[in-house]
Amino acid sequence: MALVFTGHEFADGGEHIAQVLKHLGVGASFFPHGDFYENPAFAPLIKRLQADGHYLGPHSGKHLLYCDWKKRDSLLVTRPQFEADLDMNLRAMARLGLPEPHWFLPPYEWYNDTIVQWTHDLGMQLVNFTHGTRSNADYTYPEMMKSYVSSEQIYESIVQYENRHPSGLNGFMLLLHIGTDPRRQDKFYFQLDKLIRYLQLKEYELVVIPRLLSRQ
What we know:
alpha/beta
């Protein structure tokens, strides 16, 4: 299985996440958007993640919404807009000396067949997180009311999924965030050490996206 982190305007968990991963000998995949890569304050973290052997890929330039939430086949961007925005992300990565990526995680993890094809035409493959747990809700905060999910609820949703499904979390891409809004004080990344140790006790091998998908 793979731990996948997206990055937007926040990176408060970055150093802690990097430290935990290194201490436990785990590789992960990081998909920040272009503005994240261009933020000078985040450059040391990006360099550390690269040096530690983690996978770094694109997540769009400006975190655009590609298609309507209710009508998924309705595009909100043109192909030139899509390509120009993604190119901004790729150029930001290149300026940091990062290798040319092959895997692309779309913004909001929301896309349609057209976006998949456009990504393929640019020589990349689109990937997305595996649904079934609440891990991707680790960005929520109490003011979001019913949408808010606590770290305890997130952790339990992962454990419950692993226990209830015959294949457990094999082949799973578990999505988390490298940083979250300050209004969320219950940071799930502080549960990362506990989560990884649980998964390792269950004999899961945590690998980067290229390794995971090369086995499927």
